[in-house]
Amino acid sequence: MASTSLRRAVLAGAALTSVFLLAACAPPKSLVESYPGEPRVEHVVEEDEEAAAEEDEHPAADGEPSAVWLGQGGQLAVTLFGSSTCPPVGTRISVVEPLSEGNIVEIETKDYGDGMCTADLVPYTSVFWTPMNVGPTSPLTVRVAGTEIEVPVK
């Protein structure tokens, strides 16, 4: 009887440990990093340099919000424009519609309230882990700061 109780305790402990380990592997819904400027993306050499030049044109160059996949799609970089003293930093990402239903996420940004902010306009990039249930195999819609950004397939 003691061995049965011991066996149950060991199995319960193993199950509990597995739950904690699996939860730790899930990407967080919080910010990975943020920094002034545009995203640091890897440059891929294309056979057709003219097509590559067209693809390198980035909406951020026009002061428009933009988003790009980083790496193999494991991270998403979102660039917004705002004051250098009150930068538009993304704080949280949440899934609005999973990949199977539309592939839409929403980014919350830091609220500075009525703080004193300079009137300059600079790019600021926030990088998030790609949430579970969305992915780079279908176009992604990013809702942020009253704007919808379409991120193409990776």
Automatic annotation (TrEMBL):
Residues 1-23 form the signal peptide. Keywords: Signal. Residues 45-67 are annotated as: Disordered. Residues 45-57 have a biased composition (Acidic residues). This is Lipoprotein. It comes from Agromyces sp. G08B096.
